[in-house]
Design goal:
9 strands, ExoRNase_PH_dom2_sf, 5-stranded mixed sheet, nucleus, alpha+beta, 33% helix, 3'-5' exonuclease activity, 4-stranded antiparallel sheet, 28% strand, PNPase/RNase_PH_dom_sf, 5 helices, Exosome complex component RRP41-like, Ribosomal Protein S5, domain 2
Length: 253
């Protein structure tokens, strides 16, 4: 009696071999980044305000293939106005479009990113300036190309400024990936997939204050210091880009 034919997919084995090859490449000390950047070089950044018409403020950010749009609504009367508060409320929501990642159908609200965005922005906003009201921040990732959260945070800061929300300072955010002895700034999605660890800083440059720091993987003290130095320097330069964007928008208006 003949047995049923067994199906198999040669492409799976090919994909596995390609992944193993990429992993070996990232372990080499002198590997070359796929987009040709140096290890300490960030992707080209394009930022602009006024990306959404109905919102109080909005911004669009494009870092390499990572594309994000953020809309800010408010301050508006809080739904929880019955509970009097001397300070305003900040709500943050991060979601991904269904076509933002290579795997279709993964466009969902990201609760972890929403919480981290809230934490990054909360320390920068003067909440006392809008008591009994709420500011809502909605971030939508149009295309996920790596370093998504730092781009979301930076874009949200620009959108808040565009909305006229009082802030202590603009917020910029940058991440670093660790590959053995190498540190790589502003990693792509492919690089993040094979990293040994990640380090992200959210910073208010004028006040020299860190509003958020996240760390994954195993890091030596020396590596942490090196990553911190790289991130803070990049955050300072990114903040200059944000200010230039706001000045251009003000002059154009």
């Amino acid at each position: 009696m003949a047995t049923a034919p067994t199906t198999y997919s040669p492409s799976q084995g090919l994909e596995r071999r390609q992944q193993q090859q990429r992993r070996r490449i990232f372990k080499e000390e002198d590997w070359v980044r796929s987009d040709g950047r140096g290890f300490n070089q960030c992707r080209p950044a394009f930022l602009r305000t006024g990306a959404g018409n109905a919102a109080s403020g909005s911004a669009y950010a494009e870092f390499g293939t990572t594309k994000v749009i953020v809309s800010v609504f408010g301050p508006r009367e809080s739904k929880k106005a019955m509970m009097y508060s001397d300070i305003g409320r900040l709500n943050c929501n991060v979601s991904f479009t269904t076509f933002s990642t290579p795997t279709r159908g993964q466009g969902l609200d990201n609760k972890e990113y929403s919480s981290m965005l809230h934490k990054a922005l909360e320390g920068a906003i003067i909440l006392e300036s809008f008591p009994k009201t709420t500011v809502d921040v909605f971030a939508l990732v149009l295309e996920s190309g790596g370093s998504d959260l730092p781009v979301i945070i930076t874009c949200a800061s620009l959108a808040l400024a565009d909305a006229g929300i009082m802030m202590y300072d603009l917020v910029s955010s940058v991440s670093v990936s660790c590959f053995g002895k190498n540190l790589v700034i502003d990693p792509t999605a492919e690089e993040e997939a094979f990293q040994d660890g990640s380090f992200m800083v959210t910073y208010m440059p004028s006040r020299k204050e860190v509003t958020q720091l996240t760390l994954t993987g195993e890091w030596s003290t020396a590596k942490i210091n090196e990553a911190m130095e790289l991130c803070l320097d990049a955050c300072l330069k990114l903040a200059d880009v944000l200010r230039s964007c706001l000045k251009e928008a003000a002059n154009a208006g």
